What we know:
Elements: H1 2-24, E1 28-40, E2 57-68, E3 71-75, E4 88-90, E5 93-96, H2 101-107, E6 117-119, H3 125-128, E7 138-142, H4 143-150, H5 152-158, H6 166-169, E8 177-180, E9 192-196, E10 205-211, E11 215-219, H7 227-231, H8 242-259, E12 262-264, H9 269-273
Parallel strand pairs: 3-6, 6-7, 7-8, 11-12
Antiparallel strand pairs: 1-2, 1-5, 2-3, 4-5, 9-10, 10-11
The protein binds zinc ion.
Zinc ion (ZN) binds near residues 124, 126 and 267.
Amino acid sequence: xxxxxxxxxxxxxxxxxxxxxxxxxxxxxxxxxxxxxxxxxxxxxxxxxxxxxxxxxxxxxxxxxxxxxxxxxxxxxxxxxxxxxxxxxxxxxxxxxxxxxxxxxxxxxxxxxxxxxxxxxxxxxxxxxxxxxxxxxxxxxxxxxxxxxxxxxxxxxxxxxxxxxxxxxxxxxxxxxxxxxxxxxxxxxxxxxxxxxxxxxxxxxxxxxxxxxxxxxxxxxxxxxxxxxxxxxxxxxxxxxxxxxxxxxxxxxxxxxxxxxxxxxxxxxxxxxxxxxxxxxxx
Length: 283
Ligand SMILES: [Zn+2]
């Protein structure tokens, strides 16, 4: 009898532990949003070793909406809305945006005010363009990136439309900025982790997403712009620091290998075509 009771107690305890475990691991889902398209008239910009001369190349702009329990986090904020009038030709870039992030969120029954966090891989215009469309969101950004944005010399050189972010830097909305340093577990449960990858810009980062059924994914920001550049370790001519970029690439490859993650190169059409279309998602 005693043995039956103790095994019953063990069963109850293990059931309670399972309950606790499932309560501690929130529902995490990842959606891919279409955040624009660009033709690079001069693909050789993507290699500071002089590859791709005379070629043009089509890339996609991507944002990712992540549901973490009751919270919604947007990873990257796409092109500015001015490209809705596109395609706009600027130098060798031809750029268009078909729908805003807010319009795509409406497909999921979400309002801009529902987005609690907007995390940017870096502050370039094609990753931060709609960051101000979310009135309740806390901006998540690496400290090095925020510092670089505040540095007017770097801002003028490195950021195409620094005025977009000035409200955040000026302190007006600074309480809604969560500054991260390096590799940070955003919710403390291992599901979403920033991976610092400086080099493309001073404070570039990637995101490791752990999904219960679909496995691990790495959203790689602009560490690489397309698959071949990843394999050949090419660095774009406009990157902030060549050697840092190479080091960050090795670091990210190591994270991907250790976590058996699927790499998503955010500008690579092939990688993004493999993800479900809205309202589909990975979980
Ligand atoms: Zn980019």
